[in-house]
């Protein structure tokens, strides 16, 4: 591994959250050099790189309306195309689809078939593309098998606004929906969220606070607006996470089921670094997948540094065994489980 160079193309905020400086020291002790890539500067002088690990979510989203971001993204793509021996974690098309909840929810909806034996599913959901009348939305909600309360999430799954969500309790409150967005049946889960962090062929399950239980069916309660970060961070404390009733503690997710979920999604997504939000239905004890996250923060995963370095080493080993013709396709060739982001 000595002399290998791994480039990290991350925002400053992501570097701090990941503690990239500490990871660089950790890697240096194993003969791997970690390089911070500055996307605003020419990439060739910053290279060469054996592996590039990136989270270009900001740039991808902004490139839809900002010419400077379009150029930064084009420069990155041009560099990757010109250096096929550099492995890319993770492939841009795969990451891009997870920025669109319409695309990622289509992937999640297929899990019921592929993971039926593990009693894993995803709640019914509805894509709302544009503003329409309440009766049309209500009709679609009914025809798609959704039930109140509903949780509403933005279509774009990145940025501060993507964490702004709402709980809708009645047909009349569907007026609070702001398209484009996703409506999803809310599943009572005892105020516990299980975050599954995937790092290559390893995964870790961390428990977080989550929304409390609500009575099933429509009621005249006003829409509740909330920020998911404020509800489900490790240190979160909110009235929305305090159970109103005493209920037995739910069983932990089956380790075998979680492992099957991680394997299936890694194959479907063609990705190695992602997170999955899982809840357990208080009535059926089935596992419900409610979101997939690009390169999450990995808070609460003490083995993250060693697991990430181990995955980097495995990628480099494949690269070496493939010989001089090895390309970034080791990690970037994939079959998506759903349409690309719009």
From TrEMBL:
<feature type="binding site">
    <location>
        <position position="277"/>
    </location>
    <ligand>
        <name>Mg(2+) 1</name>
    </ligand>
</feature>
<feature type="region of interest" description="Disordered">
    <location>
        <begin position="320"/>
        <end position="342"/>
    </location>
</feature>
<comment type="subunit">
    <text>Monomer.</text>
</comment>
<dbReference type="GO" id="GO:0005737">
    <property type="term" value="C:cytoplasm"/>
</dbReference>
<feature type="binding site">
    <location>
        <position position="14"/>
    </location>
    <ligand>
        <name>1D-myo-inositol 1,3,4-trisphosphate</name>
    </ligand>
</feature>
<feature type="binding site">
    <location>
        <position position="55"/>
    </location>
    <ligand>
        <name>1D-myo-inositol 1,3,4-trisphosphate</name>
    </ligand>
</feature>
<comment type="function">
    <text>Kinase that can phosphorylate various inositol polyphosphate such as Ins(3,4,5,6)P4 or Ins(1,3,4)P3.</text>
</comment>
<dbReference type="InterPro" id="IPR008656">
    <property type="entry name" value="Inositol_tetrakis-P_1-kinase"/>
</dbReference>
<dbReference type="GO" id="GO:0052725">
    <property type="term" value="F:inositol-1,3,4-trisphosphate 6-kinase activity"/>
</dbReference>
<feature type="binding site">
    <location>
        <position position="293"/>
    </location>
    <ligand>
        <name>Mg(2+) 2</name>
    </ligand>
</feature>
<comment type="similarity">
    <text>Belongs to the ITPK1 family.</text>
</comment>
<dbReference type="Pfam" id="PF05770">
    <property type="entry name" value="Ins134_P3_kin"/>
</dbReference>
<feature type="binding site">
    <location>
        <position position="291"/>
    </location>
    <ligand>
        <name>Mg(2+) 2</name>
    </ligand>
</feature>
<keyword id="KW-0479">Metal-binding</keyword>
<dbReference type="GO" id="GO:0047325">
    <property type="term" value="F:inositol-3,4,5,6-tetrakisphosphate 1-kinase activity"/>
</dbReference>
<dbReference type="GO" id="GO:0016853">
    <property type="term" value="F:isomerase activity"/>
</dbReference>
<keyword id="KW-0547">Nucleotide-binding</keyword>
<keyword id="KW-0413">Isomerase</keyword>
<feature type="domain" description="ATP-grasp">
    <location>
        <begin position="112"/>
        <end position="321"/>
    </location>
</feature>
<feature type="binding site">
    <location>
        <position position="101"/>
    </location>
    <ligand>
        <name>ATP</name>
    </ligand>
</feature>
<feature type="binding site">
    <location>
        <position position="195"/>
    </location>
    <ligand>
        <name>1D-myo-inositol 1,3,4-trisphosphate</name>
    </ligand>
</feature>
<keyword id="KW-0460">Magnesium</keyword>
<keyword id="KW-0418">Kinase</keyword>
<dbReference type="GO" id="GO:0000287">
    <property type="term" value="F:magnesium ion binding"/>
</dbReference>
<keyword id="KW-0067">ATP-binding</keyword>
<dbReference type="GO" id="GO:0052726">
    <property type="term" value="F:inositol-1,3,4-trisphosphate 5-kinase activity"/>
</dbReference>
<dbReference type="GO" id="GO:0032957">
    <property type="term" value="P:inositol trisphosphate metabolic process"/>
</dbReference>
<dbReference type="InterPro" id="IPR011761">
    <property type="entry name" value="ATP-grasp"/>
</dbReference>
<feature type="binding site">
    <location>
        <position position="297"/>
    </location>
    <ligand>
        <name>1D-myo-inositol 1,3,4-trisphosphate</name>
    </ligand>
</feature>
<feature type="binding site">
    <location>
        <position position="210"/>
    </location>
    <ligand>
        <name>ATP</name>
    </ligand>
</feature>
<dbReference type="InterPro" id="IPR040464">
    <property type="entry name" value="InsP(3)kin_ATP-grasp"/>
</dbReference>
<feature type="binding site">
    <location>
        <begin position="184"/>
        <end position="195"/>
    </location>
    <ligand>
        <name>ATP</name>
    </ligand>
</feature>
<protein>
    <recommendedName>
        <fullName>Inositol-tetrakisphosphate 1-kinase</fullName>
        <ecNumber>2.7.1.134</ecNumber>
    </recommendedName>
</protein>
<feature type="binding site">
    <location>
        <position position="153"/>
    </location>
    <ligand>
        <name>ATP</name>
    </ligand>
</feature>
<dbReference type="GO" id="GO:0005524">
    <property type="term" value="F:ATP binding"/>
</dbReference>
<feature type="binding site">
    <location>
        <position position="163"/>
    </location>
    <ligand>
        <name>1D-myo-inositol 1,3,4-trisphosphate</name>
    </ligand>
</feature>
<keyword id="KW-0808">Transferase</keyword>
<dbReference type="Pfam" id="PF17927">
    <property type="entry name" value="Ins134_P3_kin_N"/>
</dbReference>
<feature type="binding site">
    <location>
        <position position="291"/>
    </location>
    <ligand>
        <name>Mg(2+) 1</name>
    </ligand>
</feature>
<feature type="binding site">
    <location>
        <position position="293"/>
    </location>
    <ligand>
        <name>1D-myo-inositol 1,3,4-trisphosphate</name>
    </ligand>
</feature>
<dbReference type="InterPro" id="IPR041429">
    <property type="entry name" value="ITPK1_N"/>
</dbReference>
